[in-house]
Design goal:
CATH class of one domain: Mainly Alpha
Number of helices: 8
CATH topology of one domain: Transferase(Phosphotransferase), domain 1
Mean pLDDT: 84
Order of helices and strands: HEEEHHHEEHEEEEHHH
CATH architecture of one domain: Orthogonal Bundle
Shape: globular
Length: 285
């Protein structure tokens, strides 16, 4: 295998010693298994994105802090300099989130540093020591599906207590590690307090997980964890160890309950369709 230039720079600098193999490749990054001393880790090499991609990122970037007013103005105008700043901010968001969430006890890969646009981090493995599969690639017994759902809801709560929402959480950015689910891929991480779309994104994240695990434990489809945790968060009552019930009672005098239920149903149907589409795309790759 030819060593990617971005990783050759890390070899030359002594950050890693060897590239062992590719792990996965997506639209925004390619991940490789690398060796650093006696440790096997992974390296995420970010790809440069076309200008049109930034338009899709606007809803995620709202509420993020820029390094200075000049950078913020440039990103707002989408100038050449602004696009470079937005690209850098997009990549740095994941690095910053990983360190912040790891410190808060959220189950994410341990970061080991960000070098020349490459994120070096822990390689999550399964019981056999192989690269851990994604949640969307495994079949589960109902009891284990319920356990994984409870574990992931706790991680979403911990993230929310850090003021962050994953923003694109699904079965394809959760790894099934030796000790349970591990959440990955944070470049689109959202500010819970500073983004007008925060609630919708949180509900989508939780509904995606519920739709996936509800295939194995259908009773999960009747839970309201996202709505419950957001209501507690807005009230300032959500803590990292808050125990949720999955129950939520909207104010029927102000809310179209049937509409809410239909929206949640549609979101879960959309999540299933998205998963099927990703499976089909990966099969063709």
């Amino acid at each position: 295998m030819r060593t990617p230039q971005a990783l050759q720079v890390l070899i030359d600098d002594g950050v890693i010693d060897e590239v062992l193999r590719p792990l996965k490749s997506g639209k925004e990054a390619a991940v490789y298994v690398v060796r650093s001393g006696d440790e096997v880790r992974c390296a995420k090499v970010y790809k440069d994105m076309a200008q049109r991609s930034f338009q899709k990122r606007v809803q995620y970037q709202e509420g993020r802090k820029s390094r200075g007013s000049r950078e913020a103005r440039a990103m707002g105008k989408a100038s050449s300099f602004g696009r470079k700043q937005a690209e850098a901010a997009w990549k740095n968001a994941e690095v910053d989130a990983l360190y912040r969430l790891r410190e808060a006890g959220v189950r994410v890969p341990q970061p080991f540093g960000y070098f020349h646009g490459v994120l070096v981090m822990e390689l999550v493995t399964d019981a056999a020591g192989s690269s851990a599969p994604r949640l969307g690639e495994v079949e589960l017994e109902p009891a284990l599906a319920r356990d994984y759902h409870a574990a992931l809801v706790r991680e979403v709560v911990r993230m929310l207590c850090c003021g962050l929402i994953h923003g694109d959480l699904s079965a394809y950015n959760v790894l099934v590690g030796l000790d349970g689910p591990v959440v990955i891929d944070f470049p689109q991480v959202v500010s819970a307090a500073g983004n007008n779309n925060a609630r919708a994104m949180l509900l989508r994240d939780v509904n995606n997980l519920t739709a996936t695990l509800g295939r194995f434990a259908p009773e999960l489809l009747d839970t309201w964890y996202g709505e419950e945790m957001w209501a507690l968060f807005e009230a300032g009552e959500l803590l990292p160890d808050t125990v949720l019930s999955g129950e939520w009672t909207p104010d029927e005098s102000e809310i179209d309950l049937d509409g809410v239920r239909q929206a949640i149903h549609d979101a879960r149907e959309e999540a299933i369709i998205r998963q099927q589409g990703r499976e089909a795309a990966e099969t063709t790759d």
